[in-house]
UniProtKB/TrEMBL annotation, chains A, B:
Lineage of the organism: Bacteria, Pseudomonadati, Pseudomonadota, Betaproteobacteria, Burkholderiales
UniProt entry tagged with the keyword tRNA processing: no
Activity regulation statement: Non-allosteric.
Active site per the UniProt annotation: 138 (proton acceptor)
Subunit-level organization: Homodimer.
Site description Important for catalytic activity, residues in chain: 135
Designated gene of the protein: pfp
Protein source organism: Roseateles oligotrophus
Superkingdom, natural source: Bacteria
Entry-linked PANTHER family: ATP-DEPENDENT 6-PHOSPHOFRUCTOKINASE 1 (PTHR45770)
Main location: cytoplasm
HAMAP family: Phosphofructokinase_II_B2
Residue positions binding Mg(2+): 108
Residues that hold diphosphate according to the record: 13
Protein's UniProt keywords contain Metal-binding: yes
Protein's name according to its UniProt entry: Pyrophosphate--fructose 6-phosphate 1-phosphotransferase
Length: 405, 405
């Protein structure tokens, strides 16, 4: 019996736990008797067409466990989205190296890559098992309760807003925090989990699932500021006007687009700065501060959900088990089975590939600027254990002497 | 014997551990037999002139311990810097309430406030013990080995750059991270502690202690990018040209100044965005991303140095002990006594007030864009225990088949 040859790669934006999935694949594959070699492609599909492979069979289990704990993509990643010609090159390389199983860890663009490669192999009658392993901080893969990487990024956002709220309470003013998420507002909505006391921020949350209107925004901020003497705001980078034009894109001097035709929304502070300027100019509030969470929210080392780590590891392991037992290609999906427990399924690639999930209506409050309890119930277990908590002094006012009230 | 009446307040920018100092004062003061009441002023000196006091004698020790673990200023803060007239109002309120001991937790502006109030009381022959308790993420107080708040902010910056470096290695390009610190580069320099492997970033560090030259900056970035195929850069918000003009201020449309006459450098992403645009335009590098760490670096909940927590608590406790035993006003200072151990001193207020420490030359590499081992030795113990570590896959390249090298 000739031994199988595994290839694993990582695509798209890194997450805090994508290496858990990588290590899940490698350790589970090395455990299979029919597996001879486990290769990793450096920098995703680009590494495949360049034959830029490393032999993961030679890596120690001990170092693999340490790499699993390390954020970002240990094999490197890519933003390339293969078309038919690109996939043909992939196919030729896989054939030349005798690869029998291809695992690609990534988001919906990556799942589409796996679909194309799978179809290419089938059309050429080349026996190749193709499995997509979910990963995205945006939580926008269909067919999944949630996606690995999202819980840890959500935890960062919740902790960031919990802290920003405390800072804003000490030095009152308006604070705008811009969060990643082009089409899906899940990560921005996670800011709501940073709230504890009734008057805590974020007081307003703007999601890409709702049309953003600058005048309404200013009215919301004004009302909140008048009520609390301060205002903490969570804004998705993907907010857009009624025509679908991103607010951020309206401001950018040069529209940078990636290979998928997407406008570059992250990596600059333009949206936060514009919104702050509008608030200063139109509402006359002096202390207005804006932060763009940028790459910190997906790359910060030392803010991870243990639930996310565990599930990211398991989707990697399950991918290998499905590859050898399910008899078909597919995309591994997380299903919620209890509160809180999960199980894993293998979905057809066509059910996931290239599709985008957005926040369900039941998760968004009628106001359009808050989340519902259903969302809090959904997200809380994903954030994991040991979430920091904020405490306050209780009010014990002292009577005034010089100016008694 | 009439019982003493304590007043404690927090000024300036919040930190992750400023409530440790507050709780150190309160618990130690409540332990003293001669103390009757412990008041807190809400929002610093502004709360004093408004007689906005809370009675901390009524707070539970249990809740105080939980508040101590919570970042930001639990009493609220202010940016007010009292002049003689303002201090006179403070004095009148302290007199009216029979305050005998005044503790103010803050940076060099706050220490100057304590100095003025102390002199005002002495001139009026009013018996008032005034103690300044150090706090600043900028680490720019003279007479201190370091200041409470700095180690936790430094830990955030080190962890942020460790993660940004991993992200940048996965998707290579140029990354610019802008760090707080108007005059002192300590916090920006802390980014160097995020490095582990020889080719890790930050590859370039720009401090306010050195003149920033845009052409030299671009040459540095170009050389690094050519060497490593990527470049991670740490930049202080306080970088300035040879005339002392801040690079950030050159860009800001409206120069917002606080009551101390300082230009507002934080709270927008302008500096990062300008530097990124320059790199794109002049060096023709496509993937250039900038983040401004903003308020996250001082307010993030869940990233704290245990060493910082301990010392912040102790400076509060020591302040009370000095107040009752030293027989003079002053500013509590941290002295390094071993590697690593500290002791505390009471410095004269005039030795600290209004002065600014910057990074010592021995901490800055000759290149001007890196730190020295002396700085690494200085900073490492302050970051505390449990610092996350990054691991890599070892290179085990697979021979190419289609295009053998």
């Amino acid at each position: 019996m000739s031994l199988c040859k595994i290839l694993v790669a990582q695509g798209g934006g890194p997450t805090a736990v994508i290496n858990q999935s990588l290590v899940g694949v490698v350790l589970e594959a090395r455990r299979q008797h029919q597996v001879g070699l486990v290769y990793g492609a450096r920098h995703g599909v680009r590494g495949i067409i360049n034959e830029d492979f490393v032999d993961l069979t030679q890596e120690t289990s001990h170092n693999l466990e340490l790499v699993a704990q390390t954020p970002s993509s240990a094999l490197g990643s890519t933003r390339d989205k293969p078309d038919a010609a690109y996939c043909h090159k992939i196919f030729k390389v896989l054939q030349a190296h005798g690869i029998t199983h291809f695992f690609y860890i990534g988001g919906n663009d990556s799942s589409d890559t796996v679909r194309i490669v799978s179809e290419e192999a089938a059309a050429a009658s080349y026996p190749l098992r193709c499995i997509h392993i979910p990963k995205t901080i945006d939580n926008d893969l269909v067919g999944n309760d949630h996606t690995p990487g999202f819980p840890s990024a959500a935890r960062f956002v919740a902790q960031a807003f919990a802290g920003a709220n405390l800072d804003n309470a000490a030095l009152p003013g308006v604070y705008v925090g811009v969060v990643m998420g082009r089409h899906a507002g899940f990560l921005t909505a996670a800011s709501a989990l940073g709230k504890k006391f009734p008057d805590d921020g974020p007081h307003l949350i703007y999601l890409p699932e709702r049309v953003f209107d600058l005048q309404q925004f200013l009215a919301d901020v004004k009302a909140t500021y008048e009520r609390f003497g301060r205002c903490v705001i969570a804004v998705s980078e993907g907010i857009h006007d009624a025509s679908g034009q991103p607010i951020a894109a309206q401001l950018a001097r040069d529209l940078e687009r990636d290979d998928h035709g997407n406008v570059q929304l992250s990596g600059n502070g333009a949206l936060a700065d514009l919104l702050c300027e509008e608030i200063k100019d139109k509402l006359g509030i002096k202390r207005v501060r804006g932060d763009t969470f940028g790459y910190l929210q997906r790359s910060f080392i030392g803010c991870v959900s243990d639930v996310d780590q565990r599930e990211a590891r398991e989707v990697g392991e399950k991918a290998v088990q499905f590859a050898f037992n399910a008899g078909r290609d597919g995309s591994v999906a997380i299903k919620r089975s209890g509160y809180y427990s999960v199980d894993y399924e293998l979905l057809p690639l066509t059910a996931v590939a290239g599709k985008t999930r957005v926040m369900e209506d039941e998760f968004i409050a009628a106001s359009g600027t808050d989340v519902t309890d259903a969302f809090r119930l959904y997200l809380r277990p994903l954030l994991g254990s040991g979430l920091p908590d904020a405490f306050r002094l209780r009010p014990n006012p002292v009577a005034k002497v010089l100016n008694p009230e």
